[in-house]
Write a structure and sequence with these properties.
The chain has two helices and three strands, in the order E-E-H-E-H. The chain is an alpha+beta fold and 74 residues long. Strands 2-1-3 form a three-stranded antiparallel β-sheet.
Length: 74
Amino acid sequence: MLDMRPDCERCGVDLPADEAGAFICSLECTFCAECADALDERCPNCGGELLDRPARVSKTLTAYPASTERRHRG
């Protein structure tokens, strides 16, 4: 199950689990659309491809809440 990290690792912007706009690699490194674009859709941590993260909504989000651990090291 995806961790659904709450922020962009590069700039720290909030990335709510129930909204579009987050990009992840296969290791779940998480970036906002602007940072993913600036990184040419390549994860700076592992070199993997950054793809759209699916949203988690409604009852699923309630049953499986998103992570609250922030990854931005700003």
